[in-house]
Design a protein that fits this description.
Blueprint (H helix, E strand, L loop, with lengths): L2 H18 L5 H13 L10 H13 L12
Helix pairs in contact: 1-2, 1-3, 2-3
Amino acid sequence: MEPREELHAVLEVRARLQQKFSHVQAAEVARTVDEVHHEFDGHPIRDFVPVLVERFAADRLGQVPAQRTAPPI
């Protein structure tokens, strides 16, 4: 997968996860997706990175504590 295609796919992952985890702040979703994506830096095979990013980020977002899902007051 070309870097441009991968970035586009990861941005789509971010959008899907923001819809799926609408109770989590968008910035938290973006940060989580970016962190997971960067965990694959340096790995030579990139074809499945977006799929893995979505899976691992969804797992992490599913564990976000309730106090981190409410907007700050």
